[in-house]
Amino acid sequence: MKYVKWIFVVLLIYSLTAFVGKDKSTKGLNEGDVAPDFRIETTTAGQPAFDLTSLRGRYVLISFWAGYDARSRMLNASLSDALSDSRDVAMVSVSFDPSKAVFEETIRKDRIDPSSCFVDTKGEDSGLFREYRLDRGFTNYLLDKNGVIVAKDISTADLSAYVEKLN
Length: 167
Hints:
Elements: H1 2-17, E1 39-40, E2 50-51, E3 59-65, H2 70-82, E4 89-95, H3 100-109, E5 117-119, H4 127-131, E6 140-143, E7 149-152, H5 156-166
Parallel strand pairs: 3-4, 4-5
Antiparallel strand pairs: 1-2, 3-6, 6-7
């Protein structure tokens, strides 16, 4: 009986300390992290490969999505629309649709500028998908001029507020 009490105390302490430091999001990368650079070979018709480092020195919104994920697709379309006239923030829209034809039809239907859209047809098997930890859900990241994440899962309203601050 004496040991049961000590085992209970140890388990109680362990369970309380197991949650210490868990307030930081575990979904993908976090604010303050440097966004991993990437290069995408598969683009829309006639476009050269895209390299994220080509946008260093500018604010960049990276939006990860797929046509089969309604939430990410709708958010991608609204963010693209919000930035359509912006000179301060470049948008990079990355789809993980396994079919390039589905990707091209989706951006056509969603009326997204194809020059900012790219597709990784390897989908969930791609290195980019793993590097950005998208197995926890599609998301978007706003990067500063040095490639540091300043916001994630940003809404259209929050994006508009950031753009206004830049002016």
